[in-house]
């Protein structure tokens, strides 16, 4: 049994689509930094239209009055030649240039019971923000719980309740599947009858074991 975190990622911006609670904007003309920051949930932040100059060697971080933490993991939203979106891990050290990219940052755990106050791009040597925005007591998107467990008719497919973490992320608890016996398989999301014509593949963002 294992927990699987699936990110539902889609191309472009559609009417009514949400990326979470908007926190603010990262901006530094000197360093070529810009981007819109959204609080997806208590664990993840999404940076849309992110741009930064090459060679700055900086990282994303969060801070409060008493603590600073570097983001735990960082992913870039990409699309393959078939138009299927996926999340690719990227180096936490931002040494390469980014131009109008979408990044997903996993926040570190707080060591003390206080909320993070700022998120931004930090110079780790000086612990100084090059660009930052304030959470400013904005409400973290609430979690909806839960969808019914998955119950398959073949290959031992089953799971615990499916948690809806936000508009784009599901957590599938206690997932079991005999993948070595089955043909190629994906997580899909859609409306009505779900098939390849009217549904989207989901990117697996994180799992608690190396193999499904």
TrEMBL record:
Source species: Romanomermis culicivorax (Nematode worm)
Protein name per Swiss-Prot or TrEMBL: DM13 domain-containing protein
Keywords: Repeat
Signal peptide, first to last residue: none
Sequence ranges assigned to domain DM13 in this UniProt record: 20-136, 148-212
InterPro entries: DM13_domain, Spindle_Org/Thrombomodulin
């Amino acid at each position: 049994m294992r927990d699987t975190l699936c990110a539902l990622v889609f191309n472009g911006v559609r009417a009514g689509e949400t990326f979470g609670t908007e926190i603010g904007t990262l901006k530094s003309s000197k360093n070529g930094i810009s981007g819109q920051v959204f609080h997806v949930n208590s664990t993840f932040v999404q940076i849309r239209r992110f741009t930064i100059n090459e060679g700055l060697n900086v990282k994303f971080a969060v801070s409060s009055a008493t603590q600073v933490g570097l983001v735990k993991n960082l992913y870039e939203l990409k699309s393959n030649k078939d138009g299927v979106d996926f999340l690719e891990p990227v180096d936490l050290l931002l040494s390469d240039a980014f131009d109008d990219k979408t990044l997903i940052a996993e926040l570190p755990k707080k060591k003390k019971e206080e909320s993070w106050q700022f998120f931004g791009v930090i110079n780790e040597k000086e612990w100084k923000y090059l660009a930052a925005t304030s959470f400013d007591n904005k409400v973290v998107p609430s979690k909806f719980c839960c969808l019914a467990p998955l119950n398959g008719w073949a290959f031992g497919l089953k799971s615990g309740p499916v948690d809806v973490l936000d508009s784009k992320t599901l957590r599938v608890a206690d997932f079991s599947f005999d993948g070595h016996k089955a043909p190629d398989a994906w997580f899909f999301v859609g409306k009505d009858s779900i098939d390849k014509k009217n549904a989207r593949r989901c990117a697996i963002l994180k799992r608690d074991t190396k193999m499904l």
